[in-house]
Each structure stands twice: as C-alpha cells, then as structure tokens.
Design goal:
heterodimer; A: mainly beta; four-stranded antiparallel beta sheet; B: mainly beta; seven-stranded mixed beta sheet; globular
Chain lengths: 113, 111
C-alpha cells in the first residue's frame, strides 16, 4: 500500500514570511494525484492545491506552490507571505490510479504575528 | 448550495447506544467515503463506496455499518457505542479523477 509521510508534526512561521511543509510518499505507480489540504480550527477540510503526476510543471495557487520531485517522491508545499489565516493543520494526500486516497499525519502550522 | 453535507454536526451519546450519521452529496460523484479523525488529527479511512458498492472496508469493527441507499447518500450506523468511538467523522466524495470533497464533519462524543 502507498504511504504518505509528513515528517514535521509542527511548524511555525512569522507573518509575511515563507514556510515550506514537507511530504514524501512511497508508490510503484506512475499515474497518481497529490494534494495538500488545510484544516483550520473550524475542522473543515479545504483543498489547497493539487498536482497530477504526469505534469512536470509545479502547481501554484496564489501564495501556495508546490515543489514536486517525482523521482524523489517528494511533494512539498510552500506558503509565501504567510497570513494569520494560514494557521491550520496541513495534510498531504495521495490518490492512486485505483481511486484510493492516502493521507499523511499532518503538520500543524502556527503563524506568529 | 452545500456540496457535501453531514447531519448532525455534533452528537453526544452514552455508551451502548446506537446512532447514525447521515451524509449527502449533490456533486454527482460516484465514490463516497467515511473517515475517522482521532484526537491526534490522524485521518483514517473507514469505508469507500463506488456507485453503491463497498470497495474498501479497512479494519473497522463490525459495529460500524455503512449504508448507501443511492449514490448521493452514504450513511454511517454505529451500534453499541464505546468510549473509543469518540472522534470526528468525515464524509467525502470524489469524481473519477481529482480531489475529495469533504463534509463539515460530525463530532461524536461518547460518555
């Protein structure tokens, strides 16, 4: 089974600074999807960004971007110009070609004013 | 319009009771899921249904039974509730390709 590893249980960043959250995964598949989800204290799971494995270009969504290294099986999330509202739990997720999802254990991000 | 809805959002009950959580999605997705999120925020897949058929049943006690009357609904019934069942339960749905859409979660507290 695929595994998703988030090695940083907690991270902190100063407001307006940049932070990178790490994610690695293990798979033998060539076609898959990767996602970052945000879970604020409201507990709603919110999609931040998605990346298709067949695309070499890194996905970006406003202040959020990823560094997708397929050979290294790495999928990190960069948050630029951090805002107080970015404080949340962030989950990395993998979707297999067989329509199964695997989530990492999460990284709790604190934004310091 | 809410894409994935769950009811109730909060549920407090005593040990030994039976309870149900309802989930509905209006996105036309064929696949729906139930997750359990424990106090450490770990998300654990419980069930997955594709077009009303169970395709994943992880190591979940048989006190938990999913029911899908149609592809827009996936309800979770729990018998003989235990203290360890206290958690947040999420329903989600997904299209054939792409991300999961999550409901708001149901916080279950067993006393």
């Amino acid at each position: 089974a695929q595994t998703v590893t988030q090695s940083q249980p907690e991270m902190s960043v100063q407001e307006a600074e940049t932070v990178t959250l790490s994610c690695t995964y293990d798979t033998s598949e060539s076609d898959y999807y990767l996602f970052w989800y945000k879970q604020p204290p409201s507990r709603q799971m919110i999609l931040v960004i998605r990346q298709e494995a067949y695309k070499q270009q890194n996905a970006t969504e406003n202040r959020f971007s990823v560094n997708f290294q397929k050979a290294a099986k790495s999928f990190s999330l960069k948050i630029s110009d951090s805002q107080l509202g970015d404080a949340a739990m962030y989950f990395c997720a993998y979707r297999s070609a067989g329509n199964q999802f695997y989530f990492g254990t999460g990284t709790s991000l604190t934004v310091i004013p | 319009d809410t894409a994935v809805s769950q009811t109730p959002k909060y549920l407090v009950t005593q040990m030994g009771n039976d309870k149900s959580i309802k989930c509905e999605q209006n996105l036309g997705h064929d696949t729906m899921y139930w997750y359990k999120q424990d106090s450490k925020k770990f998300l654990k897949i419980m069930f997955s249904y594709n077009n009303k058929e169970l395709i994943i049943n992880e190591t979940v006690p048989n006190r938990f039974s999913p029911k899908s009357p149609d592809k827009a609904h996936l309800n979770l019934h729990i018998n003989s509730l235990e203290l360890g069942d206290s958690a947040v339960y999420f329903c989600a749905s997904s299209p054939p390709l792409g991300e999961q859409y999550f409901g708001p979660g149901t916080r279950l507290t067993v006393t």
